[in-house]
Design goal:
39% of the residues lie in helices and 19% in strands. By secondary structure, it is an alpha/beta fold. The strands form two sheets. A seven-stranded mixed beta sheet has the order 1-3-2-4-5-6-12, sandwiched between helices. Helix 6 packs across helix 7. It is found in: Cell envelope.
């Protein structure tokens, strides 16, 4: 069975979009609030949510912001969807703590809320979390990078391209990477760390700065593929032989796997499955609104390490598997 078929699991700028299927009038309204639409990850999540809403005879409200740190638009979206009578809302928080008061207001108004992709802090602020195990994702790429560095005989000089403060998914991935690599936050092997907001252009800038500080960086962890693709650009700018650099990341989108993992610019990516979050989230909220059980707890929507250059002792799948299961 493909990972895409695992049983797991727009824009706010001009208002909320409404999607429904033909036939009888739906009696359930579900909302989806993503972070932005420059990253195909979020586009895929919205598209699958729309498809699932049609199959489930559900009205779907969708909203998105301008970046992975756009909190204000998500607060407004929660308020507007609640006012429009949403039975349940899926939200990928742009700040795991800052969104909690607005989420609590929606729940007090009777809305069931599931966090997708990014947990809240505390996780109990929502009814359930449908997401990748982000610590596991970071740990997988950390183990891979460590094994590769040993295989290549490198003295690791590590650059970290982070997300942004206050976003639990990024913090969990970083912690997982460090654990997988077997180091602590203050380890001298870490040359530097910069935030990228998960953005490609900011990834270029961050990697330029880190290379200027330490041209000998030879291990790079990037929080997502847009940031990793930015790192590739910065390495090319200084004519760095990418065969001497280990670059690992998290996502599993088609562009990165076909254009960067396959040729070896990105050595490995932990592939996650936004379609599972969307599909299972819409279905769970629709079922609950129609009298089914309330969604609770954490649903792990899957993670698989994809590489064209396996590392000793680290379980992975090949690029062909990644292409068959990629999104975007």
């Amino acid at each position: 069975m493909s990972v895409r078929s695992l049983a797991a699991a727009a824009a706010l700028t001009t208002g909320l979009m409404l999607t429904g299927c033909a036939g009888e009038d739906p009696d359930v309204t579900v909302g989806l609030i993503t972070k932005q639409e420059d990253n195909p990850y979020w586009v895929t999540m919205r598209q699958v949510a729309e498809e699932t809403a049609g199959e489930e005879n559900v009205d779907l409200l969708t909203a998105t912001g301008t970046s992975d740190v756009d909190v204000d638009s998500q607060v407004v979206a929660l308020q507007e969807m609640t006012a429009q009578g949403a039975d349940g809302i899926l939200i990928a928080p742009t700040d795991s703590e800052a969104l909690v008061p607005a989420i609590e207001d929606a729940r007090e108004a009777g809305v069931t809320v599931i966090a997708v992709d990014t947990p809240t802090e505390p996780e109990s602020a929502v009814d359930a979390v449908f997401a990748t195990d982000n610590h596991e994702a970071g740990e997988l790429v950390g183990e891979y990078a460590k094994a590769k560095a040993e295989e290549m005989g490198l003295e690791p000089r590590i650059a970290i391209l982070d997300l942004a403060p206050g976003i639990a998914s990024g913090e969990q991935r970083r912690a997982g990477f460090l654990a997988g690599f077997g180091i602590e936050e203050d380890d001298p092997q870490i040359s530097g760390s910069q935030d990228t907001e998960g953005d490609r252009e900011l990834g270029v800038v961050a990697m330029r700065d880190l290379l200027a500080q330490d041209p000998g960086i030879n291990v790079i962890y990037a929080v997502n593929e847009p940031a990793a693709l930015g790192a590739v650009v910065a390495l090319e700018e200084v004519d760095r032989d990418q065969g001497d650099v280990i670059l690992v990341t998290v996502d599993g989108g088609c562009e990165a796997i076909k254009d960067a993992v396959r040729p070896g610019d990105i050595d490995a990516t932990a592939q996650q499955y936004p379609e599972n979050m969307a599909r299972e989230g819409v279905t769970a909220l629709a079922d609950h609104a129609r009298g089914g059980p309330a969604p609770t707890g954490f649903l792990n929507t899957g993670i698989v390490l994809i590489t064209g250059n396996p590392a000793p002792g680290v379980e992975s799948r090949d690029v062909a598997f990644g292409v068959r299961n990629c999104w975007g």
